[in-house]
Design brief:
alpha/beta, Rossmann fold, six-stranded mixed sheet, globular
Length: 206
C-alpha cells in the first residue's frame, strides 16, 4: 500500500444565529463578517496546502464555501468532489435545539468539552462512537482509492475528531478532548505500517 496524505480543514465559523443552537448536519450559512476578517488565514492556507492535491468537501454548503474562499485567496482552483462519509455528527431530533434545553434530555453526563458524552445517541441521530466508525471506514476507503496522493478535505469538527480517533485507535470520550478550531489544519498519513498523525489543530498564519 502506498502512502496517502490527508490535509483536513475544519470549515469556517458559521453564522451567529446558527451557533445559538445544536446545528449538527443542518445546512447553516457561514458568518459573513468573519469571512472578511479572516482573509489572511485563507491566504495562509492557500500557500500551505499541496498544489497537486485532490479536494473533497462534504454535502453541506459550509465546507464548499470554505474551499471556495481558499481558492479565492490564491490556491489554484480545482474540482471539488463530495465525500458524505466525512459529514458532521447527526444530532437527529435535537438539531435546532437551543443549547440550554439540552441537559434535560441527556442519558449520560455531558462531556467536559462537548455537550454530549461520547456514547450519547440523540433520537434519530448518531453518537460520537458511531461517527468514529463511519469516518474510519471512509478514511480507509479514501486511503486505498487515493493511494500515493495528497487529499485535502474540508470537513467538520466532529468528523475530524473521528478521523484522529480512528488513526490513534482511541475511544469517543478521549476523542472529545481534542480541540478542532475553525480553519485549523490536521494532517494524517496512511502508511503501509498504519496511520500516523502529523499535526492537529494547526492554525494558518500562526
Amino acid at each position: 500500500m502506498m502512502e496517502t496524505s490527508f490535509w483536513l480543514i475544519r470549515h469556517a465559523l458559521v453564522a451567529e444565529d446558527a451557533r445559538a443552537v445544536l446545528y449538527g448536519v443542518m445546512d447553516v450559512p457561514l458568518c459573513e463578517t468573519t469571512l472578511l476578517e479572516q482573509a489572511p488565514m485563507y491566504r495562509a492556507l492557500a500557500a500551505r496546502l499541496p498544489k497537486q492535491a485532490e479536494w473533497l468537501v462534504t454535502p453541506l454548503s459550509r465546507t464548499r464555501r470554505t474551499a471556495e474562499s481558499i481558492f479565492a485567496q490564491g490556491y489554484p482552483r480545482t474540482d471539488l468532489g463530495v465525500e458524505p462519509g466525512l459529514i458532521e455528527q447527526s444530532l437527529g431530533d435535537w438539531q435546532g435545539l437551543p443549547h440550554h434545553e439540552l441537559p434535560a434530555k441527556l442519558a449520560y453526563p455531558a462531556h467536559a468539552f462537548w455537550p454530549l458524552a461520547g456514547n450519547e445517541k440523540p433520537p434519530n441521530g448518531e453518537s460520537m462512537a458511531e461517527v468514529i466508525a463511519r469516518v474510519g471506514m471512509a478514511m480507509e476507503r479514501l486511503a486505498e482509492t487515493r493511494a500515493g496522493r495528497d487529499v485535502v478535505i474540508v470537513s467538520h469538527g466532529g468528523a475530524i475528531r473521528g478521523a484522529i480517533a480512528h488513526a490513534l485507535a482511541i475511544g469517543p470520550d478521549n476523542a472529545l478532548h481534542i480541540s478542532i478550531q475553525n480553519l485549523s489544519l490536521t494532517r494524517l498519513q496512511r502508511t503501509p505500517d498504519g496511520w500516523r498523525v502529523q499535526c492537529v489543530n494547526e492554525l494558518p498564519g500562526y
